[in-house]
Amino acid sequence: SEFFFPFQKTIAKIATCLELRSAALQSTQSQDEFKLEDLKKLEPILKNILTYNKEFPFDVQPVPLRKILAPGEEEHLEFEEDDEEGGAGAGSPDSFPARVPGTLLPRLPSEPGMTLLTINIEKIGLKDAGQCIDPYITVSVKDLNGIDLTPVQDTPVALRKEDTYVHFNVDIEIQKHIERLTKGAAIFFEFKHYKPKKRFTSTKCFAFMEMDEIKPGAIVIELYKKPTDFKRKKLQLLTKKPLYLHLHQTLHKE
After folding, report:
1. How far, in whole angstroms, is CA 205 from its chain's centroid?
2. How many CA atoms does the CB half-sphere of 85 hold within 13 Å?
3. Neighbours of 34 (CB within 10 A)
4. Which H/E stretch holds residue 125?
5. What percent of the chain has pLDDT over 70?
6. I want to staple 220 with a disulfide (CB 3.0 to 4.6 A). Which of 51, 58, 203, 244 is the partner?
7. Which H or E run contains 123?
């Protein structure tokens, strides 16, 4: 993302400041916050954006243009990180773009004798639910080798966060008739959120549902530590506390 005009770089830095301010408003910790009076220092720059040539008042990296990634693509960009958000400053590399979520697909046409599954993602229980920025869930159906059996879908960003829950209340239409899913297949739910300090979307935890769990009604499934283990070989629960993803299933049969 080369900047062709000096003011484009300034605009990108202003965008960084706005993201930092947004993160500060959503966080309950008060250290290193980007304050309102800091934001006010940007006003003269905005007024004279075409001619502004002084030193930028904050040491921030320009926000890279958020490239839209194919579903699951940011997984390959991810690196080990601490869950305690320390260390990395605002100047992380430009190579971790975030994806704009919300790629839900319509229900498939019904076929005689075949069953379609709609999963309503109600909510997810997390101890720091309120601090997640732009949280969404990526839903995929994988075989035992972790190969996609259907297109990957992203929910829109969560509706609301309260106490220890992030609420979605969104329907996912599974893109294959249940009878056509291979033995040992599983439906994965990866909970993702944007990390302003690292400038990219990160998977926080994941959950999955196996074929024998497909039945109408409510179900709660456990949350596991990342990275997502699509082969289900080395599973570790996210915490000792019981934390769950709350779902509701509807089966449609001709």
Report:
1. 10
2. 19
3. 21
4. strand 115-125
5. 78
6. 244
7. strand 115-125
How does residue 56 score in pLDDT terms, banded at 50, 70 and 90? confident
Are the beta carbons of 13 and 59 closer than 8 angstroms?
no
Q: Which two tokens stand for residue 22?
A: 């947004």
pLDDT at residue 79, rounded to an integer: 44
For the segment 85-109, what is each residue's pLDDT rounded down to a tens digit?
A: 333 333 333 333 344 557 789 999 9
CB 123 within 8 A of CB 167: yes
Superfamily of domain 120-253: C2 domain (2.60.40.150)
What does the block give as tokens for 148? 């996609």
C-alpha neighbours within 13 Å on the C-beta side of residue 125:
13
Q: Measure Cα distances from 187 to 34, 89, 100, 132 in Å.
A: 40, 36, 22, 23
Residue reference for tokens 């062709």: 4
Residues ≥6 apart with Cβ < 8 Å to 115: 177, 178, 179, 251, 252, 253
Domain chopping of the chain, boundaries: 120-253
Is the pTM higher than 0.85? The answer reads: no
- Helices vs. strands in the chain: H and E counts, helices first: 3, 10
**Quick one: pLDDT at residue 42?**
87
CB-CB neighbours of 142 under 10 Å? 22
Is the pLDDT assigned to residue 80 strictly greater than 50? no
Distance, in Å, from the CA atom of 4 to the CA atom of 23, rounded to the nearest integer, reads 28
Which of the two residues, 96 and 154, has the higher pLDDT score? 154
Query: Checking phi first, is residue 203 left (phi over 0); if not, alpha (psi -120 to 50) or beta?
Result: beta
133-142, strands of its sheet edge to edge: 153-154, 133-142, 186-195, 200-210, 224-225
Calpha distance 208→245 (Å, rounded) = 9
